[in-house]
């Protein structure tokens, strides 16, 4: 019996040791002091943590990402952000589950993207072409309805009411399909994408004479065109960046958390164009970054929004990082005149 128990324990330990499992994440505590254009002050704080689990066996990986927040988008509690698997079926790569379109993906700074349940992306490479196709939307929910059923035997009628049915997670294989191809020409990376039956996109990025660039454009039926351009270079230890958005209508710009812009045109009602310059450098171990820009019609249909942000980031000997950010942006005051909205944020974060 002792030998059987020992063998069972050894077997379980071996299986655990062979499992390719990793746990990573990050956490932060942030304090905000805000003063709006009318002089109203507010102090808030938030604690947020992300925990990511990843397991792998052969060519198959599974990922689960959780967010723990005291006052996040979904309220306090635990939010399952991503849950998906990647694998291969012959020469076809498969990614399936609940996941978001990355902001580095095509038109990531233009379109909000976002997560979708039971999404699937298939990929296939041939020669220098990288093809992909997939589906990204939930089936629409069904409204409540009443059906009258008549008995064939007695001729009597009865009514049956079906309650409203929320989106059940099934994916529709129609206008929510997307497809695209990536390839390189003379060192420049190009991507063409059919986002849906009403939207097409194009992107190109590369480097010329020490300047990296990224240009992306999309055309949406009924809305027209929208584009994003980004230029980066480095001069005497200072990183320089120019980024801009332009759209025929404001509705085409709905990204509100791109990570590029200090203020987002997509978070405004009328903003249909944006320009921003960013400079960053290291001073005695502290990274300092300045961003300044303008959102056309950022305040109203006739008033632009100017803004600037200064950020100082420094790693601490404890393993955490201290980040201090000051934001100043135009805001409409009561009565319609333009004032200043100021925000001081102090953040302590760590990655593990």
Account of the 3D structure:
With 352 residues, this protein is mainly beta. The chain has a domain at 138-171. The protein has one helix at residues 2-18; strands at residues 20-35, 41-57, 60-72, 75-89, 92-101, 114-126, 129-135, 145-150, 157-162, 177-185, 188-196, 199-208, 211-220, 224-235, 238-247, 273-283, 286-296, 305-315, 321-332, 338-351. The chain has an 18-stranded antiparallel barrel. A two-stranded antiparallel sheet has the order 8-9. The chain is globular and about 60 Å long. The two termini are 42 Å apart.
Rg value: 26 Å
Derived from helix and strand composition plus strand pairing, the structural class reads: mainly beta
How many individual helices?
1
Q: Tell me about the biggest sheet? A: 18 strands, antiparallel, barrel
Mean pLDDT: 85
Q: Which terms summarize this structure?
A:
mainly beta; 1 helix; single chain; two-stranded antiparallel sheet; 352 residues
Describe the structure in brief.
The protein has 352 residues and is mainly beta.
List the helices and strands and how they pair.
Blueprint: H1 2-18, E1 20-35, E2 41-57, E3 60-72, E4 75-89, E5 92-101, E6 114-126, E7 129-135, E8 145-150, E9 157-162, E10 177-185, E11 188-196, E12 199-208, E13 211-220, E14 224-235, E15 238-247, E16 273-283, E17 286-296, E18 305-315, E19 321-332, E20 338-351
Antiparallel strand pairs: 1-2, 1-20, 2-3, 3-4, 4-5, 5-6, 6-7, 7-10, 8-9, 10-11, 11-12, 12-13, 13-14, 14-15, 15-16, 16-17, 17-18, 18-19, 19-20
């Amino acid at each position: 019996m002792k030998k059987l128990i020992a063998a069972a324990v050894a077997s379980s330990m071996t299986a655990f040791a062979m499992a390719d499992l990793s746990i990573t994440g990050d956490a932060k505590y942030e304090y905000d002091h805000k003063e709006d254009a009318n002089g109203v002050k507010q102090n808030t704080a938030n604690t947020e943590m992300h925990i990511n689990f990843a397991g792998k066996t052969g060519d198959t990986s599974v990922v689960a990402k959780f967010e723990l927040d005291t006052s996040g988008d979904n309220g306090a509690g635990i939010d399952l952000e991503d849950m998906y698997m990647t694998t291969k079926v012959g020469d076809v790569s498969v990614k399936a589950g609940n996941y978001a379109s990355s902001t580095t993906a095509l038109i990531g700074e233009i379109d909000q993207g976002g997560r979708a349940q039971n999404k699937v992306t298939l990929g296939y490479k041939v020669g220098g072409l990288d093809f992909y196709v997939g589906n990204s939307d939930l089936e629409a929910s069904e409204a409540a309805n009443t059906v009258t059923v008549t008995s064939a035997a007695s001729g009597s009628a009865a009514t049956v009411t079906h309650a409203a049915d929320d989106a059940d997670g099934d994916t529709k294989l129609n206008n929510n399909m997307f497809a695209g191809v990536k390839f390189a020409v003379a060192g420049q990376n190009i991507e063409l994408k059919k986002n849906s039956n009403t939207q097409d996109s194009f992107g190109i990025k590369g480097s010329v004479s020490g300047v990296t660039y990224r240009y992306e454009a999309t055309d949406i039926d009924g809305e027209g065109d929208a584009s994003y351009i980004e230029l980066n270079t480095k001069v005497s230890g200072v990183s320089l960046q120019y980024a801009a958005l332009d759209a025929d209508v404001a509705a085409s710009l709905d990204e509100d958390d791109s990570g590029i812009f200090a203020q987002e045109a997509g978070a405004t009602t009328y903003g249909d164009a944006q320009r921003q310059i960013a400079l960053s450098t290291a001073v005695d171990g502290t990274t300092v970054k300045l961003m300044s820009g303008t959102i056309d019609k950022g305040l109203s249909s006739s008033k632009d929004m100017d803004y600037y942000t200064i950020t100082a980031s420094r790693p601490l000997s404890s393993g955490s990082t201290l980040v201090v950010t000051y934001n100043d942006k135009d805001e409409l005051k009561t009565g319609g005149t333009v004032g200043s909205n100021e925000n001081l944020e102090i953040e302590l974060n760590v990655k593990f």
